[in-house]
Design a protein that fits this description.
The longest helix has 18 residues, at about 50-65. A hairpin with an 8-residue loop joins strand 5 (about 75-80) and strand 6. It contains 9 helices and 23 strands. It has one domain (about 1-105, about 115-395): Anthranilate synthase (4-Layer Sandwich). The chain has helices at about 10-15, 50-65, 125-140, 160-170, 225-235, 235-255, 295-300, 310-320, 370-390, and strands at about 1-5, 20-25, 30-35, 40, 75-80, 85-90, 95-100, 115-120, 145-155, 175-180, 190-195, 200-205, 205-210, 215-220, 260, 270, 275-280, 280-285, 310, 330-335, 340-345, 350-355, 355-365. The strands form 3 sheets. Strands 1, 2, 3, 7, 8, 9, 10, 11, 19, 22 and 23 form an 11-stranded mixed beta sheet that branches. It is about 30% helix and about 30% strand. The radius of gyration is 20 Å and the shape is globular. It is α+β, with helices and mostly antiparallel strands. It comes from Solibacillus merdavium. This is isochorismate synthase. It catalyses: chorismate = isochorismate.
Length: about 400
């Protein structure tokens, strides 16, 4: 069954979500995919995984249509490491509705999640040493920017109520991208869930939009201090440089696919419940009707906003500095239909949920002027998106 715009309201789609489904709510639409009609096959040669994936996505959509699917779309997630296997499939049924993010939405009440144990990987001290390593690589001329991240591993007293967590994230994330998708392996079922503020790229008809974010400040509960931080961010040489590196990279990556590109000279501000971000909206027209949203996303992933610059050197440095596998964190999650339309979101402000365990992620962009203690505080603020949605009181934990 396929229901088009206006057939089902957004709240019903959110209520109808079950673990294992694909769900995404954007400022423009809500999509719920159920079941698996066809998997996008992975590439046996890991080195060619990302190179071949756009072709495999296009072929899977074509096959699904030939086999009678009334409206095939590919949904799911792609990991940060381009050599790792993506989790992409065509759902059996796809339901669309307009987004009601900007309209009133009542807060979902739920009991706070009880935490047995919370471990920071790496420890805060080790993370700051990693930031120092990144700064050294930048000052030596090896890198222009690098993103250093850390994770929080939570052990809970009860299994994660994923549908409830998704409701809470959707309530809090009225202007971003709320998502949940299955990233099950052969060993266990795991849900990737989050509320990202960052659009990697969208394609509608012949028009494409990318919205890189880089340069951040934690929000303050004090309105005066909150506005001071916003103004400071907008004039910060360090953050403006970090942002400029990302925007230049995004524009260069999209230039082979787009014409009449619009790249604003100065960034603007966007806000979430927990953070201020520098934002630039890059627009353009497709050079060819065959270019899909997934083609564009694959060309962009990963941007310096989540990796660094130059990309391959930064990615190698990340593998040396970070003592954990990012998995799908800082990858991309989204959808692409047979006409090439779609939306792909940078997978940040997210967690991997499995039974009694949750693994949260947060990173910070490092440039030559970065200070380790400030970057640690930034990652702690970014964790709050997921922690607040779970009702977790973080005061009892020193490692956040």
């Amino acid at each position: 069954m396929v229901s088009k715009q206006n057939a089902v309201i957004e709240q019903e789609l959110l209520d109808d979500y079950r673990v294992g489904d694909f769900f995404i709510e954007t400022p423009y639409r809500t999509i719920l995919g159920k079941g698996v009609f066809m998997q996008v096959p992975s590439e046996e040669d890991h080195e060619k995984q990302m190179v071949e994936l756009p072709k495999k996505v296009a072929l899977t959509l074509k096959k699904a249509k030939e086999q009678g699917h009334p409206y095939p779309i590919v949904t799911g997630a792609v990991p940060f490491d381009s050599s790792k296997k993506a989790c992409l499939h065509v759902p059996n049924s796809v339901h669309f509705s307009p987004s009601f993010q900007k309209e009133g939405r009542g807060q979902v009440s739920s009991a706070p999640v009880a935490v047995n144990e919370l471990i920071s990987v790496p420890s805060p001290e080790y993370y700051m040493k990693g930031v120092e390593q990144g700064i050294e690589k930048i000052r030596s001329g090896e890198l222009d920017k690098i993103v250093i991240s850390r994770s929080l591993e939570l052990s809970l007293t009860e299994s994660v109520d994923i549908p409830q967590l998704l409701h809470n994230l959707a309530y809090q994330n009225k202007h971003g991208y709320t998502f949940a998708t299955d990233i099950a392996s052969e060993e266990q079922r795991t849900t990737l869930i989050g509320a990202s503020p960052e659009l990697l790229v969208s394609r509608q008809g012949m028009h494409a939009i990318a919205n890189p974010l880089a340069g951040s400040r934690p929000r303050s509960k004090d309105p005066v201090e909150d506005q001071r931080r916003a103004k400071e961010l907008l004039s910060s040489p360090k953050d403006l440089y970090e942002h400029a590196v990302v925007v230049e990279n995004v524009a260069n990556a999209l230039s082979p696919f787009l014409k009449n590109m619009e790249v604003p000279e100065k960034p603007s501000l966007v806000t979430t419940e927990t953070m201020w971000h520098l934002s630039t909206v890059v627009k353009g027209e497709l050079l060819d009707t065959e270019i899909s949203s997934f083609d564009l996303a694959a060309a962009l992933q990963p941007t310096p906003a989540v990796c660094g610059s130059p990309t391959e050197k930064a990615r190698q440095a990340i593998s040396e500095i970070e003592p954990f596998d990012r998995g799908f964190f800082t990858g991309m999650v989204g959808w692409c239909d047979a006409e090439g339309n779609g939306e792909w979101v940078v997978t940040i402000r997210c967690a991997e949920a499995n039974g009694h365990s949750l693994r949260l992620f947060a990173g910070a962009g490092i440039v030559g002027e970065s200070k380790p203690e400030e970057e640690l505080a930034e990652t702690g603020a970014k964790f709050q998106t997921m922690l607040r949605a779970m009702g977790i009181n973080t005061e009892q934990f020193k490692d956040i």
